[in-house]
Amino acid sequence: MTGLYTADQVRTAEEPVLARTPGGALMQRAATGLATACLRLVGRAVGVRVTLLVGAGDNGGDALWAGAALAGRGAAVTALLLDPGRAHAAGLAALRRAGGRVVTDAAAAGLGRADLVLDGITGIGGRGGLRPAAADAVARAVAGPGLLVAVDVPSGVDADTGAVEGEAFPAQHTVTFGAVKVGLVVGEGRGHAGVVHLVDLGLDLPAPAARQLTDADVAALLPDPGAGDDKYSQGVVGVHAGSATYPGAAVLCTGAALRTRPGLVRYAGTAADGVRAAWPEAIVTDGRPADAGRVQAWVVGPGGGTDDEARSVLAEVLATDLPVLVDADALTLVSREPQLVRDRTAPTVLTPHDREFTRLGFDLGADRVGAARAAAAALGATVLLKGDATVVADADGTVFVNGTGTPWLATAGTGDVLSGVVGALLATGLPAVEAAAAGAHLHGRAGQLAAAAGPLIASDVVAHLPAAVHRLTDRVR
Ligand SMILES: NC(=O)C1=CN([C@@H]2O[C@H](COP(=O)(O)OP(=O)(O)OC[C@H]3O[C@@H](n4cnc5c(N)ncnc54)[C@H](OP(=O)(O)O)[C@@H]3O)[C@@H](O)[C@H]2O)[C@@H](O)CC1
Ligand SMILES: Nc1ncnc2c1ncn2[C@@H]1O[C@H](COP(=O)(O)OP(=O)(O)O)[C@@H](O)[C@H]1O
Ligand SMILES: [K+]
After folding, report:
1. Which residue's alpha carbon is nearest to atom 25 within ligand 2?
2. The complex's ipTM?
3. Any idea which GO molecular function terms this record carries (predicted)?
C-alpha cells in the first residue's frame, strides 16, 4: 500500500527532523536522492548536459545541490535562476564550487541541447499555474531534447489535489521527497508527474490522506479457492442489467463478474436470452431480482433504463440488507431519490463517471479526491469516481486513488465491466471501499493487458481479467 500525503502533512513531519538534525541536512538527503535518481535515469554523469530551472524557494535549493553533485561527477551543469536575488544561497555556492554555470537568461540556459532538465521552480510551496518567466523556461525545456525530471512536484501542479491552473511542467519522471503527494497521482497532476520515484527522508508520517493499492495488496484481498470451497463459498453475485433490446451491458457485466470470481453469478432481467447465449455458466432468470435465488451482493443499473419498472427493481434491490453496486441508469434514478441510498444500512457503492457525478448533485472541480469524499459523506455510501485515476471514497473519509489503467479504457462498455468486477468482489464479503478499490485496480490491469495487444473493446477487458488476477502475484495457479 502506498500512502499519499498532503503538503501540510509532509511539512509537519519534517519539523522534528529539521529540529534534531544540523541545518540543511534534510535538504542534503533530498538532493543526494535526487542526484542518485538522475544518474540512474541517464546512466552516467561525465559529459551529460544538465539544465536546472531554479525558483526562489527550497525546491530550487534541492535542484542546485543535486546539480552540484552531478557537476562533481563530471556533468556540465547550467542553472537558470528565475528569481536571481532569491535563489538558495548555499545551493548556489555549492554549484559554483563544483564548476557549474549560472545564467539568468533562458535563451542562454542550453535548453535546446540539454540531456537532462531538472525542474526546481516550485515544490510543495507552489501556488497556481507558472508565472510568465517560469512558463517560458518550461516551454523551452519541452521543445528541447532533455529528459524532463521534476523535483518533488512538477511546478504548476497543486501538490494536494493535482489541479493545474495554467502552465505546468510536464515531467517524464518526478523524484519526490519524504512521501508521495496526493497531487502526483490524481487529476491533471498524474499526467504531469510521469513515473514517480520516492526518496525516503526518514520522516515519521501520520495516517495518509489517501492510499494507493499495489498488486500485492489486491492479491492478498483475493485468496485462491481452497480445498473446502464450493461454488457458493466465494460469494454469489446477482446482476440486474441490460434489456431485451440492448443486452450488451448485461453480457459484459455478467461476464466480468464470472471472470473475476468464477464460483457463481446469477442474472435477473429482460436480457436473459442474450446472457444465456454468451455465458452458459451463469444462472439466468428473466424475472425480477427476487426470483434469482440467493446472492451475497447485487449489481444494478448498467443499460437498465430509467422507467417505472427500472425504478421498482432498484428500490427492491436497495431494500435488501445486501451490499449493492449502483451504476449507470440506476445512478440517474438515485439522483432523483437519493434517500433510496441514504436510508440504507447495508453498504452501497456508486460508480459515476463525471457527468453522472454532477447529475447526482455534487460539484466536480479540479479536486477529485475532495469531491468524491464529500459525495460519499453526503450519501453515506462508497463513491467510485471514474477517470484516468479513479478515486474511491468511503463515507468515513477513507480514500483510495487507483494507479492502474490505460486511456484505451475510454471505450463503450468498460464501465459495465468495472461494475461486474466490483460486484463480484463485494460478494466475497470485502468491505465496500476495498472491493471498489481492488476492483478498479484489477479492471485497470486487465485493460493494460488487453491494450498490449492493440486497441481494445470492452469484451477484451473481460477476456483479460483472469490473466490480470493471475499476474497480481506472478504465481502459477
Ligand atoms: N523544509 C525542508 O527542509 C525541505 C524542503 N524540501 C524542498 O523544499 C520544497 C518546499 O520549499 P519552499 O517551502 O521554499 O517552497 P517552494 O516549493 O520552493 O516554492 C516557493 C517559491 O516558489 C515561488 N512560487 C510560488 N508559486 C509560483 C508559481 N506559480 N510560479 C512561479 N513561482 C512560484 C514562490 O515565490 P513567492 O510567492 O515567494 O514570490 C517561492 O519563492 C519542497 O517541495 C522540497 O523540494 C526538501 O529539500 C526536503 C527538506
Ligand atoms: N482516459 C482514461 N484513462 C484511463 N481510464 C479511463 C479513461 N477514460 C475512461 N476510463 C475508464 O473506463 C471506464 C469507462 O466507464 P464508463 O464511462 O462508465 O463507460 P460505459 O458507460 O461505456 O461502460 C471507467 O473504468 C474509467 O475509469
Ligand atoms: K518542481
Report:
1. 415
2. 0.95
3. ADP-dependent NAD(P)H-hydrate dehydratase activity; ATP binding; kinase activity; metal ion binding; NAD(P)HX epimerase activity
Three-state DSSP class for residue 109 = coil
DSSP string for residues in 224-254: PP-TT--TTTT-EEEEE---SS--HHHHHHH
How far is ligand 2, taken at its centre, from the CA of residue 85, in Å? 48
The three-state secondary structure class of 285 is strand
Instruction: State the Cα–Cα distance between residues 284 and 274, nearest whole angstrom.
Output: 10
For residue range 170-198, what is the model confidence (pLDDT) as tens digits? Answer: 999 999 999 999 999 999 999 999 999 99
CATH class of the domain comprising 2-210? alpha beta
Sheet holding 283-285, edge to edge: 180-181, 2-5, 210-212, 399-401, 391-393, 382-385, 348-350, 324-326, 297-300, 236-240, 264-268, 283-285
CA distance 475 to 470: 7
- 118, 122, 136: residue to mutate for ligand 1 pocket, most atoms within 8 A of CB: 122
DSSP state of 131: P
- Identify which ligand lies nearest to the alpha carbon of 242: 2
CA pair distance 173, 256, nearest whole angstrom: 34
User: pLDDT tens across 100-139, in order?
Assistant: 999 999 999 999 999 999 999 999 999 999 999 999 999 9
Domains 2-210 and 215-473 share a fold: no
Q: How confident is the model at residue 477 (pLDDT cuts 50, 70, 90)?
A: very low
Ligand 2 atom closest to residue 412's alpha carbon, by position in its atom list: 22
Residue nearest to atom 25 of ligand 1 (CA): 126
297 bridge partner residues: 237
C-beta of 416 in contact with ligand 2 (< 6 A): yes
Q: Are 61 and 90 in contact, with CB atoms under 8 Å apart?
A: yes
Cα of 68 from ligand 2 centre, angstroms: 45
Binding residues for (6S)-NADPHX: 58-62, 123-129, 152, 249, 303, 353, 416
Closest CA to 387 of 363, 404, 370: 404
Ramachandran sector of residue 223 (left: φ over 0; alpha: ψ -120 to 50; beta: rest)? beta
Q: What is the residue extent of each domain of the chain?
A: 2-210, 215-473
Give the residue whose CA is nearest to atom 41 of ligand 1.
56
Q: Which atom of ligand 1 is nearest to the CA of 61?
A: 47
CATH class of domain segment(s) 215-473: alpha beta
